[in-house]
Amino acid sequence: MNFRYKFKKGTLKAGAAFVCAAILLSVSIPAFADIYTQEIPPLTDVECAQCHVPVYADLKERGGAHQMGCRECHATFHNFRRSLTWEERVPGCQECHGTPHGEQDPMGTCLVCHTNSHAPATSLSSAELEPYCSQCHQSQTAQLNNPSAHTDMGCVGCHAGAHGYVPDCTECHVEPHNPFKSNAACTSCHPVHDVSGLNYGTHIENEGCSYCHSTQAQDLGAGHLAHSMLNCTFCHAGTHGKVPTCQECHNTPHTSEMLEEFSGCADCHGNAHNLLPGY
Question: What is the number of structural domains in the chain?
Fold first, then answer.
């Protein structure tokens, strides 16, 4: 009985297959060869993005100058034959950028620092870059070699987070002696990478000095003679705290016999900041 059942079941299957084949033969099926006679257009950038969604998002949100058509970089794509190296599959950065940071390791290996080629600028991490800062920022490194509090901090002590971040001085120094206007106002006197030196030139306005030297600034403003028309740094030039002698500008306009009767110029000319007579 079981044998008869299996035979009938097999006969039914064979019959069903024969009927289906007959039906298919009666239906007109387009020749597959027609597909291969057509020119297949290249994928558009939007079509690339449909599969490469994270890459598209990186380029859209933080791609910077790399916001280009996909094929401007990926002339050869979707080619993963085992015989090909990674460099043969993916374009080299040097093809467009050359070697802007030199060829010394690791500066010639772009992805060591620019960890995401589709977000090259924002994928830089200051903490990972710190060992290599001196290779690009040589003058700043040389200044930091002069011992100061900033030397002990290291680069990421100030330039934390993303590469290129410059903090306001007031993030650490809360307006120590004058209202904060900008970093430029601070660094015009305090070289930021060599804060051990306090050097400035004649470009410093008197207002910057007046926050600490208010008495002197008041006297200078109240005067009406030649000194009232000068910047503080005209006399106190070079290094903060320098006090010149009168002779550096005026030589010795009086005779030695006359000078013997006085202890110095201030006896007659009073305060150097207002030049009012002292008698």
Answer: 1
